Amino acid sequence: MKRSLPLSKVYRLLEPGPVVMVTTAEKGQANIMTMSWHTMMDFEPPIVGCVISNRNYTFDILKATKECVINIPTVELAKKVVSCGNTSGRKIDKFKTFRLTPAAASYVKAPLIDECFANLECKVVDPRMSAQYNFFVLEVLKAWIDPSMKDPRTIHHLGRGTFMVAGEKIKLPSKMK
Fold first, then answer.
1. Would you state the pLDDT for residue 115?
2. How far apart are CA 39 and CA 49, in angstroms?
3. Which of 6, 144, 162, 170 is the most buried (most CB within 10 A)?
4. Element of type H or E holding 131
5. CATH code of residue 25
């Protein structure tokens, strides 16, 4: 028999994808923020929507520069991902503190995180919902992937310090080619 679920826990059922690390840069200083509230909004060009709290250092930088990189880590980086999420870039250099390697992007000033298996260079294309909902609409300008990682295992946030690791793949019939 089913039971009622508190509305404050609904987000744990709908987490849309892997935990990512958003990098931004302003005045020569780079920052990393851990984020799990994002969603694909369109295919081509790729449009991503994401929620970044206005209490986060990254919110102010993204609002000012209108660009970032979405870095997709694997489970091997899980402890660094959580550590980045539990600290503020206002107080520390997260690249140095957590021994992550910044790499130059092609289209934005924010750096890629070299240890991540994929990196998406983005620009803000619609900031209208950022004031009320902390929601940014981003267009992916350039995507990078490490071809040596055939089946990267990403982490997915379930709330309150609990994560799930992407696992077994299954293939089902599809009309999409």
1. 97
2. 5
3. 144
4. helix 130-133
5. 2.30.110.10
